[in-house]
Amino acid sequence: MSVPCVAVERERGEAVRERLAEADALDGDHEIAADGDAIYIPVVDPEAVPADLDARIVERDAAERDRPRTPAEILGYEPSLERLGDIVIVDEDDDERAQEIADAVMASDVPCGTVLNRASPIEGELRVRRWDVLAGNGTETVHREYGHEFLLDVAEVYFSPRLATERHRVVEQADAGETAIDMFAGVGPYAVPLASRGADVVACDLNERAVDYLRENAARNGVADRVTAVAGDVREVADERAGAADRLVMNLPHSAGAFLDTAVRLAGDDCAVHYYDIQHEDDPFGPGTRAIREAAGEEYDVAVETERVVRSYAPHEYNVCLDVRLTRN
């Protein structure tokens, strides 16, 4: 059967296959074939092939695959899985079931280097968790999001791929030339894209390993010259950065309220604040709004521009974001 294929040199074959899989362009129903120095990788639709691959598309006969393609087809049920780079994460209390799922993932067509099971909740001031390695041997990976790459180790830093859409929403509001301060930056999922938009970014985090990854990620995405990474408490830079921020990102939902006085000190004359909170469904935005107004006092006019439910956090609780404009009186 003739299907569209990406034709690529043998030495680039695996890298291109992984990129096509990430873009959901890989045709798992047909076999990859080699002919001479070229590899032919079937794709579902030529239009789905990422433009940055600069790929040559050809029509070619390809044999149909006859082995199971998904973990669900192997298991006979749909497991709960989460992808982060080439890591697949399961969340199972039953060790035997967790291992069964891991074995199915590794036997399937899912691009995967490691399968992990959550071994603890998020713990401590640095908000990391423990993991059981069910297959593979590493907890470091490269996550790709809206054209950016983030190297990280899930055993050493906090990172949630579920917030990709929310991060992109915030980043799209930024303008070139503004000064942004990411008060709890992690490995840079806000800071790096903000810098790519042309902002000058100061990014702080208590977790020194996260800051190491942040610096690496700024370099690998070509924005190291616009990102100042600070290992430590953002309150320690408030004096030297007072009044500098055109934009503040406060993504520490359980504790951001304790840093509102610092945010006000950092805010410039006209500052956008993205304040993340976790509140009960009965009043998800009120507590945050009141706390921001109290911290701003008479110094700033406070205008709430967006009230957004980011996701459900727990029964009857929401993770929310307030986009707030602080204008100096």
From TrEMBL:
Q: Which SUPFAM superfamilies match?
A: S-adenosyl-L-methionine-dependent methyltransferases
Which keywords accompany this UniProt record? Cytoplasm, Methyltransferase, S-adenosyl-L-methionine, Transferase, tRNA processing
InterPro entries per the UniProt record, alphabetical: MeTrfase_TRM5/TYW2 (IPR030382), SAM-dependent_MTases_sf (IPR029063), TRM5-TYW2-like_MTfase (IPR056743), TRM5/TYW2-like_N (IPR056744), Trm5a/b_N (IPR040601)
Molecular function, one GO term: methyltransferase activity
Report if keyword Oxidoreductase is assigned: no
Domain of life, per lineage: Archaea
Which GO annotations describe the biological process of this protein? tRNA methylation
- Which residue ranges does the record assign to the SAM-dependent methyltransferase TRM5/TYW2-type domain? 81-328
- PANTHER family the UniProt entry points to: TRNA (GUANINE(37)-N1)-METHYLTRANSFERASE, TRNA METHYLTRANSFERASE
Please identify the protein, giving its name as recorded.
Class I SAM-dependent methyltransferase
